[in-house]
Each structure stands twice: as structure tokens, then as C-alpha cells.
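Problem 3 from the worked examples.
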Amino acid sequence: MPTQLTSGAITVEITSDAILTPRPQAVCGEIEEQLREALEHPLGLPRLNQCCVPGDRVLLVIDPQTPWLTEILTALLAELRTVAEPGLSLGILLPPDPAGNHWDCVRQQLPHELRDSASFVCHDPRDLAGNSYVASTEAGERIYLSNEIAEADLLITVGILCFDQLLGIRGTTSGIFPAMADKDTLERTGMLDARPATSNRLQERRALIDEIGWLVGAQFSLQIIPAPGGPGALIAGSPQDVMDAARPLLTEFWELQLEEQPEVILTSIPAGQFGWSMAARTLASLNELLDADSRIILIADLPVPDGPAARALRTTQDPAELARRLRKESVEDGIEIGQLIAVTQEQRVYLLSSLEAELVEDLGLLPLANQQELDRLLQTIPDYVVIPDACYARCRLA
């Protein structure tokens, strides 16, 4: 029976036997039911409305790539609205918008009541006045974050928990650091380096994220683990308790084991405005499984990339030099374009999308226009591995 790979308006059918998928029982119920259970029984904390008092400044630190964001924020707002009058002062803090539109798309997803009552701030890592010193790590590293974080009485992180090629695991307080750090802090801590990191380096980065979250007093986290076909799990509570509960679920849902090193990987990612970030992370992760000059085939309904690094890539004659330059600069799409360049320098990467073929080629990729072109390519490949939604997965060789 054919398996469908879907990304937005693009759907293809694959008949390969070598299809790796997370366990189908990963989907654990309707989103509203899971949200109600998570907020009624947070891990390590009382209910959210008991974690604050009237008049508190409550800051929602949001990862804009969070699936089901509208439903999550609606439930969160309902819980906060049970605090006695005079109520709370609400703020929303988001990372820099790579499209430069101050997250208008996210604003449209907000519940009307939250859109009308909360302040809305987009972090700017280059704004000296908008960032300030908050703490020093045990190793003596001085950390500068958005002023909004220092001024909040209650910090609530809202985000997605998934494996991440740069952070090890994305989620909980990674929405605070590195997402809301200033440019100098990002450079000093190596968070602008898009090159593949060793397992030890990933553990060090995650430990630094957790330490900074603790130093700034991040109290409450509401996180979602996606699964094929629906929300895999929603977890609320203290950041450390949420992370401890998430780790075995991430392994169950998204840790996949390959019996042997593949020569070709076919994968898809969810569609949306974050497609290029997801695509770059996915390619970087899969690249670690492959020998040089292997092939990755990506199904992705992607927008035209219009960030400064993407524009530079489309015109450069020397992608490797551009990648070196991006490691020293803080531009909105610098990390993802750096990852893209690194992979395309080593592998042949095919992209089935709705983008113009010339644009795809300018980005260093090989364009596929439709199912027919994909089928013709696959007919030339004896063996390949299919990994749906590989942006969330961690694949290991046996």
C-alpha cells in the first residue's frame, strides 16, 4: 500500500518498503483534552493561577514554530483569566522575525482577547538599549537578554519539544536562551555556529540553556511534542520537570534506528513560513548519517526565501565563503542558510516544491517539479530510506 508524504499543498505517494515512521500510537488524544489535563495538573507546580497574584507582569515567551499555537494560547489565557481582579499585565515576547514583518502572522493566530490586552514585542539581538545583563553562568559567562525577561514577575515559555541539530533538544527554556539573547552573547557562547556539533557539545549547549533558564527564574512551561497525525503530548509545569517527562516521549515518538548507512534518504517536512528553518535543520541532521556525495530528496512546500542570507546565497559565486562570513554575523536567517550551504557542499540535495527551478538552483539544490519527476528519479535508485517529518526526528545507525 502506498505511503503519502505531505507538505502543505504537495502530496506524493511512495511505495518503498524502507519507510521509517514513529509508532502510530504516538497520537495521544485531542488537543483541547490534552491542554485541559496539562494545565489542571502541571508537573512540580501548583496550577498556573496560583503561581501569580493580581497585578503581576506575566510574560509569555513564545516559540513561533509551535504547532497548534492558537489552541494553546487560548487555553493558557483562560487559565490566567481566573486570577482575581485587578488581574494581570500580560506581555508576549517573540524572537526576531526572519521575514521582518514583526510576526504579523503570529498576531493573527492570537485569541482576540490576548491580541487586544497584551503588549507585543519582537526581540532584536542588535538593539543595545533593548537588552541588558541578567546573570553570569557558573563558568563566568555574562548573559545579556531582552529587557522584557528581566522585568517580568512570571515567565511562561510556550513552545515545541523536539530533537534539534543545534541544541540537542529544542524546548522549555531554549525559548529564552538562545532565542532572546543579544548578538554579543550569541557569539561568545557559540550559538551562531551552524556546523554539526558533537554529542558532548550538544549536551553542553543544552546544559547552558537549562542553567540560564534557572538563573532568570523561568517558572512555568507549556510545551507540545508533535506526532504524525496530531499532537503527541502536551506537558505543563516547571521547565526541568517538563523536560524530564519529555525525554522518554521524544525517544518513543521520534528516535529512529537505521540498520545500515543509507545512500539516499527521502523525507518531508511540514509546510509553513518556518519551512526553510525546518528544512535546513532536517538536512543538517540527515547529513550526519550519510557519506559524502550521497543524496537527500526533500518534499517541502516552501515560501520564497527573502532573508538577507538567502538573498546573498542566490547571488554569491562562493557559497563556502558566505558560510564562513555568516558564522561571524548575526542575521535573521544566517544559521539556516549556513546549514543549507554546509549540506549542499557535501550532498546532492533534491527539492520537490512549488518554487521556480531557477531559484532552487540558485540555492544550491536540484529541483523536482512533480510526482512524475520524483518517480523517474526513484526508478534510478535501487534502495532508499523514507522518513516522514524528519525535522522532528533523531536517526541513529545501528
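Problem 4, a separate protein:
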Amino acid sequence: MIPVEEARRRILARARLMPEEWLPLARARGRVLARDIVALRTQPPHDVSAMDGYAVRAADTDPPGRPLRLVGEVPAGRTFPGRVGPGEAVRIFTGAPLPPGADAILIQERARTEGDRVIPEVTVEPGRFVRPAGLDFRAGDPGLAAGTLLDGRSLGLAAALGHGWLPVRRRPRIALLATGDELVWPGATPRGAQIVASNSIAVGAMAEAWGAEVVDLGIARDDPAELTRALEQARGLEVLVTTGGASVGSYDFVQEAAGRLGLELDFWKVAMRPGKPLVFGTLGETLLLGLPGNPVSAAVCALVYLRALVRASLGLDPTLPMARARLAVDLPANDEREDYLRGFIEGTDGEGCWQVRPAGRQDSSMYRTFAQADVLIRRPRHDPPRQAGALVEVIDLATITRG
């Protein structure tokens, strides 16, 4: 068995950065920017009014009370055709360009009108309520950096910068293949000793949230020839993820079937719990990640390994995000396998640090506990006994499974 970090290192060494493709803004949410973009325009392009009011010469409002002659108006999106002279004012609306000659805005709440006259009630300073050209950015300024995960905020900025299309990383294509005679499709009625296949649903949903494009290859029976045919369907894709059939049982055929297709095995078995029987290698240009069949084992291995592989291929940080929490109970010493315990948050200490309690049973078939858990509590290999109150590393499941 190899350590978890060694397994992650070997997997990440095989990750390939995806090529770029161009998408319109409306389709780019959730994608990763492939290269830096700059502002294509200046924002605002002119000195503009920040308020509804009157464009004036600031000097004409000192002292207040002297009437100014109203000579026109300018709404947003238009320009004033003339120039503001001494003793004149132009009705202006938020976002409209400041007319030539004016240097300040007299807001409407601080003025009164009498026919074609505007009477300032206050003195305004030059530049008051004026947004200068380039206040936000100027053409050529840095906009968004490569590696930005595009959300509503960043897409709004891209639009303001003048971009209608963006270069993004192509999604890595991941094939999912469940294996086992005991499996039936979700929604079907299991017969006898059959169970519902949930791994592809869980792993596929997480992989899509992490940025992958998922291809479900269905269920392959425990037959080497059928399994070989199923594995062949993944040729040309970036990653093939199998669930089940990776152990040493008489009906575990993943390695045998993949060997017929030229599998170059990198490693098998990792010192972790759950998730020991993990297979990793290459089938030509396709990476093979063989996850265990037990639902919790498959899900935890996907979090630890598949997420890192997807993120690295998109140019994102593949580091497993960890937080610190305090144990609510004592824990005995750990053995030679790195543990990922499902746990629940019971509150916080006086410093706002979570207090976590491991689930009472950690059987890798108990998926409901995984689905309801708040965190995974990570325990290193040979970790000594820990008392209640000790700090431990945890993974926030709600956050990591959604993106």
C-alpha cells in the first residue's frame, strides 16, 4: 500500500491541462478562464453624472441662491450638443455625460426651479457627484486572470470590459462505469440479492460540479469479456472511472479486463480508510481510476483523487481543502491507514472553531451517514490517541461536493 499523498502525487503527475475553447458569456458560467483578459474599453467612457440633478459650473453656485438659466437637458445615453456657459445649468440624469463647460452636479434635492431658472440651495465643489472617465477601468487595464472560475460577478465584469466571448478550458471528459452482477439501475426494482447502483450518480454529480463533462457508460456485468467491451467505450476520453471490481475477489475483473486493453498499472492499494482497493493507470491516452464498490469508499476516493485530477486539468488548485476543528469526544490511536471519518458539527468553541463528533459507525456501505454528515475528519497514519478538545483536520462536505 502507498500513502495517500503518494497516490495523489502520482495521479496529478498524469493530469493534462485541457485546451482552450471560446464560449459566449451566456454559456461560460462555471467554466475556467484559459488566459488573462484586459479591458477593451474605458468605463465610464466620459465624465458622467452620479446623480439626477443639474450640470453646472461650481463657481456659479457660490454663494447659493443666485438663479441659473436652464438651457437644456441630457439623459443617459445622449450628449448635450452645446456648452454650459456662465450662469447656465443643464438638467442631467444619472449616467449621462457631463456637458462641456460644466464641472459639477447640483443634485435635484438641493435645488428648486422657477420656470426656466434653477436656484442652488447649496454651494457645490468642482467634481461633486461627477464620475470621471476611467473611474472603474481604462482600455488595456488588467481585467480577469487566467484560472478564474467564472461566476456571475466575473462574467458581469467581462461584459463591462467589452468581451462577448471568452477563452475557457475545455471540460475534461470523464466516463463512468459501474460494475457488478448485483447492480440495477436507480428506479428499477431489485430482485433477490440485487442492490441499486448509486455510485455513478454520486460520483458523476460531484465530477460535474467540479467542472467535468460526464459520460455514463452504464453497468457492466461480472464477465471479463463484457467488461472489456465496456472499457473500450472510453477510448479518446480523458478519464475512465470504474466503481467496483477493483479488489481481489473472484469476481473483481477490472484489472484483468483493462489488462487486455493494454493497461499500464501505476499503483493498486492505498493506505487509507475507506478506499484501500484503488486502481490507477493508463489505457493509452485515457487515465483509469478504479474506485472501490462500497458507496462511501467510492465517494471519499472521488473527493480525494478525482477532484484533484479534474481541477488540475482545468488549471485550478488541486489541493484538498482542510479546516481545523475540535473533537467533541476522545479518539483512540489510528493504525497504518489514513482515516476519513464521517462526522457531525455539534457547535463551536469560544473562538468560533467547529466542534465535531465522528459518526458512531463508519462502515463503508452506510451511504446515508455520508450524505448526512457535515465533515470528513482526517486522521494521519499512526496518529496518536486524541482527547476531546484536540484540534483535527476536517473537510467541509457541503462545500467540496458542490464545486
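Solution to problem 4. The mean pLDDT is 95. The domain at 20-43+136-169 is CATH 3.90.105.10 (Molybdopterin biosynthesis moea protein, domain 2).
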